[in-house]
Write a structure and sequence with these properties.
About 15% of the residues lie in helices and about 35% in strands. By secondary structure, the chain is an alpha+beta fold. Strands 1-2-4-5-6-3-9-12-11-10-8-7 form a twelve-stranded antiparallel sheet, with helices on one face. The N and C termini lie far apart (about 40 Å).
Length: about 290
């Protein structure tokens, strides 16, 4: 999948004032990729808003998406205020919701400005893409999982701790990746934001697994994203390097909580995200 394919994927067909249709990209996963549904929902909402940028979204994944069927996005124009605009988006397949999301947009405004510091990280040009690491581990997987595992992605990810990427050791619940679109893109900010939302769904839930020495590729768990939230703080470009810093403060009751901070190469915090995921150990003897 190339970056032009991702742009096409996030470009929806408008069926009516508040109704949109999106197609699916089969990246080899069993169901529709959650990041795709988030990004498409953002683009549906953005199409009903003028002169304001999204600053936050909160979405709940309700059902697994069917890769063989298009997704309908129903936008509820809840409020257009003096400074903020609110939208609710329901993603629908086969007459049932698969995502319910709320989004808020804000007109340009000046205000107080501070942020946390970006952690130290090697220069992205000194690191290798995780694509190479995935390909090198492909023989560990059942054949039906290999296509997804080794497929090209439109946003390149370079792990800061490559030796830990598929480790079975108990590791701290934190990891970092440099991410960037695989080629330059000339698109509005809303599409840069939607592509970042798409990309933010990769590896985030896996941060929960690191202290337990568990890997998705070993078929030891049942996992799924339950919800996903994002906050956009400052403008950015997806075709410039961004440092994605992830940590997981807790796992309990079959769920794991994960946070992400996204910085520009210059150290500006441009976005934050949070995701809770289902992390259920499989009983192989049962």
């Amino acid at each position: 999948m190339k970056i032009d394919d991702l742009i096409a994927l996030l470009t929806l067909e408008r069926l009516d004032t508040n109704l949109f249709r999106g197609l699916n990209q089969d990246i080899g996963s069993p169901n529709v990729f959650g990041g795709q549904v988030l990004g498409q929902a953002m683009m549906a909402a953005s199409a009903t808003v003028e002169d304001r940028d999204i600053h936050s979204l909160h979405g709940y994944f309700l059902r697994a998406g069917d890769k063989t069927a298009p997704i309908i996005y129903d936008v509820d124009q809840i409020r257009d205020g003096g400074s903020f605009t609110t939208r609710r988006v329901v993603a629908i397949q086969h007459g049932k919701p698969i995502l319910n999301a709320s989004m808020s947009f804000q007109r340009p405004e000046e205000g107080l400005n501070h942020q946390c510091e970006m952690p130290d990280a090697p220069d992205p040009d000194s690191l290798s893409s995780e694509q190479a690491y995935r390909v090198s581990r492909a023989d560990m997987l059942p054949e039906d999982q290999r296509e997804f595992f080794v497929s090209d992605r439109p946003v390149e990810m370079r792990p800061v701790q490559p030796d830990e990427l598929f480790s079975a050791d108990s590791l701290p619940p934190e990891q970092m990746f440099w991410i960037r679109a695989t080629s330059p893109v000339d698109v509005p900010l809303a599409l840069h934001q939607a592509m970042l939302a798409y990309s933010s769904d990769f590896y985030l839930i896996g941060t929960t697994l690191r202290p337990h020495g568990i890997q998705f590729v070993r078929d030891e768990i049942q996992s799924a994203s339950l919800d996903h939230a994002m906050w956009f703080h400052r403008p950015f470009r997806i075709d410039d390097w961004l440092l994605y810093v992830m940590d997981s403060p807790t796992a309990s009751a079959g769920r794991g909580l994960n946070f992400g901070k996204i910085f520009t190469r210059a150290g500006e915090l441009v976005a934050s995200c949070a995701q809770e995921g289902l992390i259920r150990l499989l009983n192989k003897d049962g």
